[in-house]
Here is the input.
Amino acid sequence: MRPPALPPKAIYTSCYCEENIYLLCRDFTSIPEIAEKWDAKVVFVSNADQQVALFTQKSARKEELPVIWDYHVILILKPREVEEDEGLHGRNNEEADDPPRMTWLYDFDTRLPVPCPWEEYLKLTFPEDILPEYESCFRVVDAQEYLDSFASDRSHMIRESAKKQDVVMYSSPPPTYEPIFGRLVAAGVKTNLMDGFVNSCEGVGRFGTVYSRNVVCRGVAEN
Here is the structure.
């Protein structure tokens, strides 16, 4: 079962991974042929100190070195359960040379192929032998919940020095389109990015389920 390729006109803005993935998630879930076959989940990667090490990233100073980020956001597509066709046409009318049914990962910032098999991405991007303070937690959120509930006014990207001078100066240029506010975001909420999604602790007002590195593969597979 072949995963969908990145849309030819997928929107990407450096340092705004949560918005890049939001738009990709919206694209995939709006295409019936994809939505019927694939279950989409958004994964926020962070930890309690908001300093996680990711390997195989384009922005690394050297290929063998990791980048240290406060958080990162990726998208996972898992094949939906379908009825098997036991007739003469074979399994679900799929081509004999189709790759096996597996979970695929989409990351605009990786040096790995996109999409990439989830288990391969996890192994190469988050190796097990890193310092404990840089280990990642994984908040897995259903695609529709993310599309409905995410809000960001991009205030987390405004430089602290600029805030003191009451000036808006971003640490990286923001997207040219308007900030994103899901249809279920409560009136008056300007952002829930950091508290609702990046924060790696469970609690009221937070979305999805948090997994450790050792169980995230099983967690993604079961939810």
Observations:
- The chain has a mean pLDDT of 89.
- The helical segments are 17-29, 32-35, 118-125, 143-149, 160-164, 193-198, 216-222.
